[in-house]
Amino acid sequence: GCGSEQTAKEGSAGDGKGDAGKSDGLKVALILSGPANDQGWNATALEGLKKAEDEFGITSAYMENVDIADTEAAYRDYAAQGFDLIVGHGFQFGEPAAKVGKEFPDQYFMATESNSQGDNMASYVMSCEEGAYLMGMLCAGMTKTNTIGVVGGFEQPSITKELEAFKIAAKEVNPDVKVLEIYINSFVDASLGKEAAMSMIDQGADVLYHVANQAGTGVITAAQEKGLLCCGNSYDQNSIAPDSVMCSTVYNMPLVITTAVQQVMDHKFEGGVFYLGMADGVVDIAPFHDFEDKIPKELMDQVLAKKDAIISGEFEVPRIESVTK
Amino acid sequence: MTEILAVITTYLAASLRMATPLTLAGLGESCSEKSGVINIGLEAIMLSGSFCGFIVTFWTSNLFLGILAGIAGGILVSMLHAVLSIKCCADQNMIGLALNFLFLGLTSFLFLKAFGQTTVLPTCDTVNVIRIPLLSEIPVLGPVLFTQNIFVYIMFIAIGVFWFVFYKTDWGIQLTAVGEHPRAADTAGLNVFGIRYGACLINGIFGGMAGAYITLSQLGFFMENVTAGKGYMALVAVILGRRNPIGVLLAAMLIGFADALQFNLQTMGIAVPSQAFSMMPYVAAVIVLLFSVNHSSNPSALGIPYQRNKR
Amino acid sequence: MNSKWRSVLSFAGVGAACVGISAIFIILTGGNALRAFAGFFQGIVGSAYNLAEVLVKATPLILAGLGVSVAFKSGFTNIGAEGQLYMGAIASTFIAMYLPGLPAVVMIPLCMAGAFILGGLWAFIPGVLKAKFGISEVINTIMFNYIAINLLGVLVQTVLKDPNGYFPMSPTLPDASALPVLVRSTRLHAGIFIAIAGAVLIYLLIYKTTAGFRMRAVGVNRRACSCAGISAGRNLMLSALISGGMAGIAGFSEVAGLHHKLLEGISPDYGYLAIIVALLGRKHPVGVVAAAVGIAALQVGSLSMQRTANVPSSIASIIMGTLVVLILARKTIFRKLLGKEEGI
Amino acid sequence: MPLLTMRNIDKSFFGKFANQKVNLDVEAGEVHALLGENGAGKTTLMNILYGIYTKDAGEIYYDGQPVEFRSPKEAIAHKIGMVHQHFMLVPTLTVSQNITLGLREKGYPCSNRKQLNQKITQISSQYGLAIDPDAKVNTLSVGEQQRVEIMKLLYRDARLLILDEPTAVLTPQETKNFFRVLKKLREDGRSVILITHHIPEVMDIADQVTVLRDTRSIITAPITELTEEKLSEYMIGRQLKPIERPMDTAREGTGLEVRELKMIRKGVARLNGISFCIAPGEILGIAGVDGNGQKELVEAIMGIGKTPGGSVLLYGEEIKNLPIRSRIRRGLGYISDDRQQDELLMDMNLAENMLLKMYEDKTMNRHGIIHKKSLYAKTQAAIENYDIKTYSLEIPIRLLSGGNQQKLVLARELAGEPRALVVSQPTRGLDIGASEFIREQLLAGKKNGCSILLISADLEEILALSDRIAVIHGGRIMGIVPNTGEVDMTAVGLMMAGRDSMAEREEGEDADE
Ligand SMILES: Nc1ncnc2c1ncn2[C@@H]1O[C@H](COP(=O)(O)OP(=O)(O)OP(=O)(O)O)[C@@H](O)[C@H]1O
Ligand SMILES: Nc1ncnc2c1ncn2[C@@H]1O[C@H](COP(=O)(O)OP(=O)(O)OP(=O)(O)O)[C@@H](O)[C@H]1O
Ligand SMILES: [Mg+2]
Ligand SMILES: [Mg+2]
């Protein structure tokens, strides 16, 4: 729009972002859909922002618990304040970002897990399914009851693709394995997550995985309480239950953000949808900690080999974004 | 046969686990509502209990102190509600909603202050299971009822005590009188305000305990909005159970059962969006309510502040 | 000093106390309180866009708040505006998606009517259960909230799902179903007019017509009403229907004016805030409009404060909760100032 | 030294005085009548004494000590008891639970109900107050509730009993019995403050009289120095005129008629085939002890609750199955004895209360829109004609005194110019001036051709107004006698007790009560 052009210029006038490489005054904002302090999905993103701040000396700002109805206003306000890069962390931020992006052509917009794009708007999708695939192999390899379980937050692509990859991987390692899955329709209700896990344990599951952010922490608690094994998600969750958490999928959100910031600084930021996975160092798995010795060598090798195959591009993990039952 | 018993046992156990916080909070709320004070801020009471319980346990590594702190946290909220509703005569629905907002913010804020922005989840010990000798050997019921932690035992004892007090003692009569006709109670020489404050205090104690159960028994950690709407479900249990302690337990068990059932159905892999299963507890509550036709009798003065000097 | 001024002064006191308390919290987070408050007010009145945002947020609050007021007036404790709003959103999406060819003059009224009916139905069912069978509406309306939210989840993955996308949301709805934007490059849409018109209509209905009188009377004394030949049940059900209908229109306005599609999480607790709005506004349409704008400004300001001063979002909840609590306690805190309150 | 002295008591609401410089002295062992018009401030004064209201100014001495009760609890501790104008009983509790409410008996909080019941039965038989300790209060008739209230005071061994219009709801027999209790109390050395509007009662029982007029106490004197005429002059500032009922007996046609009305409620037959017919311009009085089917009869005619057996005819038209609204539209008016429950929207203002019955009126309602001007005009007229004491027509009716609330109800019903009217206890709680006025209004209605069914516990009232008197007992009409001026009162009394006046005597079940 014509009204906003002026503000946009004002915003970019003082920060001298014409000089490549220099970051003085570069302003980056992050918009989160949930609590920043969730020790998971949002926390890793914020960590990334802080890291960019440390590395490049940018000015940063963030907003948490932003509802869908307020998303557009948040993008617009940050843009009007002259932020050069505005990142929304979650698929629902894609469309507003693209929309506001059109009105502020000199600034950059980004959303994760979305499929929107524009001239100055990019979507960075993390190939989380690559991590989940390895967890599926691990869980299926470790089960004694031939039953494993996975708890999902909401039925949305970023979650579903992990669950689906998990199921395929499990069958690959152990064709007889039974994979139980429950979506609890919450990212925050840890007790519900725990109960979902308990229900699967009652049905014989002895290794569990979760893709439910905060609520998923309850899954780990359940495994710990019952002396069973599980895999974590988002970051290395071993510290929550060192006796239970064999390994975790890790998203290197900080890298995603620093990459984007670097690109802005280098004037290389482009619109589009980009997939970042293990090969890019964005998705990884955590160390095995005490389980290094407890996981059978054979299985461990199999998993690590698969990881290498994924990184080298030899193997492509299928990305299935709607639930198959 | 043993298989059926096993299924019953697991369902019973799952229902009871989920029913425990709802029942604990529901008992306190029943008491408060019987006296004429309705507290929609049960969610805030529980959240405050969860937070205080966790943080004190985290600091002192003493679960007993933690539980006490949880209770204190609950009392803080319920007393705030009590003063606003009894002394300031404010609209009780509004107080409850406002406190829910306030304590959602406050607990999250203080948690942030205490631990900072972190990706490491601070955890604390959880209470141990106490196996009651002999009783725990009974088939089906034994493992469910007598292999539990302190919260569950407190809940069972409280149900008995509440039932006795409500229906067999003068206190129960006084509570009814204050909730049904506060002016009559006042003119009979009862201290209406005192009794209501007392009932609110009890609500705080049990609501706080319910909150502490979540962090100190169920999870072992705290996070923003950890109660996630359980306060509202406890309110449902109170109305569904008609403020009868046993009724509250049964209602809470029903909600728990519906959740256990929906999880089991989901794992069967039926190709239906999961939300269709997630709504089951709520649908179940509505259906059960249909059987309470013409039996819902609220205390006449529920939600109405008593002002002595007013006509 | 006359009582009006005392009352104004006491509200000023509430405001000051609220500012003080928030300042303490902001300073505790290491934020700059002055900057935060500057951000707060700038967020509300700093630009046309910001002002528009306040009205954008006020729109659903007014509509749902009116609905809650109508219900409360007749003694129907409607905690279910949230669910009714969702149902309204679902209905209007359904119509817009499955009748895409309609012109706007037909489409918009049709969507509105659909939203009113489905939202109204969502309150009418608890209304019937209460009126005919004496079943508590408090639980039912809360349960219906959860059911509606889950129902929306199911629908956006099935019949209302965008066939060309894989996100759980509906496709963008046809332009004919969109409410016009009032001020360019803001999000302010015609929904605000619908809300204001709604307030006027509800005012006339409740205070100027015999139908409204009957509903109010039922809320005061059901027995006296039946003795006077006014059916308590029927009026209760009617007010439930209107109440849910208004909340449903709030849902319509969010879909048609703001999102232009249906997706999960469409209402950030508007239904619960509407209860606060209705009660703060003393169930009177004028009060509801004022309270809705106030709460909307508070929310928009808090969001802006978050952005400018980097304070956590919990501060917003704290400010909101504190403000309402202080307003509730105002008469007691300022008893000396206000003098002997009438009738107390 | 008097037991109680109240000096210069002031109390105002909304800046208007309800009590102004009021003085009251009560000696030990006396029955002290407190009289005054509706809204004179009697209840307010007593509420101050009992610790419900706080006074603005003045002193209270009790037993020689200056006192100030901040709550009823403190008053009770000083052995003061009060029976309120509107009963203060918890309906969902039993009689015994209500009586002992708030007391700490032996074993508290797990007191032995059986023992308490024994003590209650003992006291009640001592004073001749028959009650069942285990009955739920919401199943009791008003007369029985009254007894429970008195028992509450006796159980607490009150020395000073405040009785706010206790006889308003009692039948003559009950009143007689009640006075026996009062006399016994006086003999025991207890003091009673008795508020009533019945001057004969005052002459009968009071030792001292204090009259409030327009918020002030205007006189205190021993009863021996007063006469009925003097008292009424103190109260309303003038003499009462005797009511003149036109004695035209021959009337044509049928207005309100019921045939073989039958109703069973909770398994008990409440109406056992009641038939009567009221001509236009006739008043039929129903005499009877409360709880003998009066309430059911009235509700059957009005269509409140269950549909009865038999038929209800209004000017020849069967209305038994019509909804209430249609009956009102056809000109059937109703005044219930329970005004707060059945007639009033306590939290709404006077005008809105007027509107409750007449919102369908053409003058009030134009295409569903309320015509505020004519509503306010009509309300204002009612306030003036009925002398309703209020500051404004826009205040909640809850704030009016009991008598003034009743006046508004009457004004509303009579303003509709009904063709037939069912009136239950129309002057209950009204002061003598207002009662006189209401009776005149009823007679005026009769003159306009309205068929009036009058139910009253006050035999005097029935005698003064009715053209014929029917006696109800056990859901049956025992007999109908024309009110010719020489009614056989013994026969009426016998019928009220369930015995047929004529040769054919009812046996068994009715007699043993
Ligand atoms: N204002 C109210 N407050 C509380 N409960 C109410 C209210 N209005 C109606 N109800 C509920 O409605 C039920 C039935 O009321 P009522 O019998 O008066 O309805 P009705 O309209 O007369 O019914 P019908 O149309 O079938 O004759 C009651 O049991 C009560 O629970
Ligand atoms: N709490 C109150 N708030 C406002 N006005 C009140 C209140 N209590 C009493 N009044 C007013 O004080 C006046 C005296 O009322 P009170 O009830 O004492 O009269 P009363 O003599 O008992 O009359 P009645 O014979 O009709 O019972 C009335 O005008 C009434 O409206
Ligand atoms: Mg009915
Ligand atoms: Mg009085």
From TrEMBL, chain B:
Keywords: Cell membrane, Membrane, Transmembrane, Transmembrane helix. InterPro entries: ABC_transp_permease (IPR001851). The chain crosses the membrane at residues 6-25, 37-57, 63-83, 95-112, 150-167, 188-214, 270-293. The keyword Cell membrane applies. Its main location: membrane. It is found in: Cell membrane. Pfam families: BPD_transp_2. This is ABC transporter permease. It comes from Diplocloster modestus.
TrEMBL record, chain C:
It is found in: Cell membrane. InterPro entries: ABC_transp_permease. It is a multi-pass membrane protein. Keywords: Cell membrane, Membrane, Transmembrane, Transmembrane helix. CDD domains: TM_PBP1_transp_TpRbsC_like. Its main location: membrane. The chain crosses the membrane at residues 7-28, 48-72, 84-101, 107-129, 141-160, 188-206, 286-305, 311-329. It comes from the Bacteria. PANTHER family: ABC TRANSPORTER, PERMEASE PROTEIN, GUANOSINE ABC TRANSPORTER PERMEASE PROTEIN NUPP. This is ABC transporter permease. It comes from Diplocloster modestus.
Automatic annotation (TrEMBL), chain D:
It comes from the Bacteria. InterPro entries: AAA+_ATPase, ABC_carbohydrate_import_ATPase, ABC_transporter-like_ATP-bd, ABC_transporter-like_CS, P-loop_NTPase. Gene3D superfamilies: P-loop containing nucleotide triphosphate hydrolases. Residues 4-239, 256-499 form the ABC transporter domain. Pfam families: ABC_tran (PF00005). The keyword Repeat applies. SUPFAM superfamilies: P-loop containing nucleoside triphosphate hydrolases. GO terms for molecular function: ATP binding. PANTHER family: CARBOHYDRATE TRANSPORT ATP-BINDING PROTEIN MG119-RELATED, GALACTOFURANOSE TRANSPORTER ATP-BINDING PROTEIN YTFR. This is ABC transporter ATP-binding protein. The lineage of its organism: Bacteria, Bacillati, Bacillota, Clostridia, Lachnospirales.
